[in-house]
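Re: beginner question about structure tokens

> Can someone show what the tokenized structure looks like for a real chain? I only ever see the sequence side.

Sure, here's an example I had lying around. Input first:
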Amino acid sequence: MDINDIRSILTLLGLLCFLGICAWAYSSAAKRGFDEAALLPFTDDDMPARDVSDRQPKEG
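And the corresponding structure tokens:
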């Protein structure tokens, strides 16, 4: 077994891993979790918004 056989096997394993991830990402089982994660930016925060004046440098 030479280096080209090892490279071919690793390429094939990488392709199979990629195809597995694509199949998982587009499966209906993962859809619920992705839909929930997509709405996270729109959820209400428990913390109040920060005052803009806190971000300005203080004169001294």
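Each token stands for a local structural state, so reading them left to right follows the chain. The two ends are 72 Å apart (CA to CA).
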